[in-house]
# Entry
Amino acid sequence: MEVFEFSDRIITAADKALELAKPRFAELDALCEYNGQRVLKAFIDNRVSEMHLKGTTGYGYNDDGRDKLDAVFAQVLGAEDALVRHNFVNGTHALTTALFGVLRPRDTLLSVTGMPYDTMQEVILGEGCGSLRDFGVSFGMIPLLSDGTPDYTNITKRAPEARLVYIQRSRGYSLRPSFDISTIEKIIKAVRESNKDCIIMVDNCYGELVEDREPTAVGADLIVGSLIKNLGGGIAETGGYIAGKSALIEQCSYRLTCPGAGKEVGCTLNQSRGLYMGLFHAPEAVCAALKTSVFAAAFFESLGYEAFPKYNEKRTDIIAALKLGTPEKLIAFCEGIQSGSPIDSSAAPEPWDMPGYDSKVIMAAGAFTMGASIELSADAPLREPYAVWLQGGLTFATGKAGIMLAARKMEEKGLL
# Structure
């Protein structure tokens, strides 16, 4: 049965994409089951009870629900400890808290996966805004090789200069591959060959539960992410996390609250239940997002477009980039995604000067939680090569429909 009206061309491409995606879907279903059991075990092992779902007010002293949530996240992420809070306003805030928590004046931050994405550049290199540069932290950067892979030789050579090595797992607004755990393990090994003492931190945004382990399993000291992405499961209304070595988490907590208080304060208001439920639902939500990504790649590849990664390539985060080629196609695609959203489907996304970005950006995100990229969304800077970055999809059925509606909008404008 057909609910939306699609042309024969779109229906044929969708049927072909589903057939091509079957082997990948089977792998993703198996991963979802494994990660779902890992999350369940963390809840059981930490004896989460109904009382832990209730929030606190004021100072938040003796908030056992908050402390228990940290322990559950730490177990799921393979970390010694975690700092999970609703008052991280976004992933960049959590990353900033971690960097300022462990770095000191005259330290050097070395990014070994190229230049960090736009919003982090302001945190690191901004002038007169309280950036790391303003506080006397030096920055070094090792570009990726021409094929988008890490420069391991140069990493080993330059690691001794660093107090902290920064690894960006996801691709940002680039077409390079995102990095899987095996690649991150190789980066860490290259660092440790010449600097055994530096802190290795991974921006884990978009990558949680995409594999059967996290970067902490291969030697990362800190991993950081947002809760309106993977680990919020589409339920968490806001928040972020930092996980890793206990001593480092303590330093980060002093930055989040104040020295001497750290993790011992901070009320949870009415957010605890959503954060617990979001984590519990996260394996299913991530699986749906990954299936949507695979389908989108197979579908648009069959229509003659280039996808990164390709439909049959391993996913290492929930993002797929589609190279559309012109600003008109990019805008039409985003209009189509917006039209297929459960919220604000009648809105028309337009390019705008978004804070923290160096060119106009268009975003399509009709989400239950504003900016939640675990929900189907698309965004792109209006610059060459006019690619759109697609992520999310709380259910595969609605994610698939959203992709097809994006193609329909392009088709209506004579751009498909």
